Amino acid sequence: MCEIALSQGGEARAAAIEAGYLPALDADRAAYLVLTDQWDRYHESDPDGRLLAAAYRARPASGRDRIRAACQRGRVDTLQILVGDDRRAGVRDLNAETADYLLESLISAGRCQEAWSLVFDLRFEWGLLAAARLRDADILPERSSDAPAPWATRLR
Question: How far apart, in Å, are the Cα atoms of 76 and each of 18, 19, 128?
Answer without folding.
Answer: 23, 25, 27
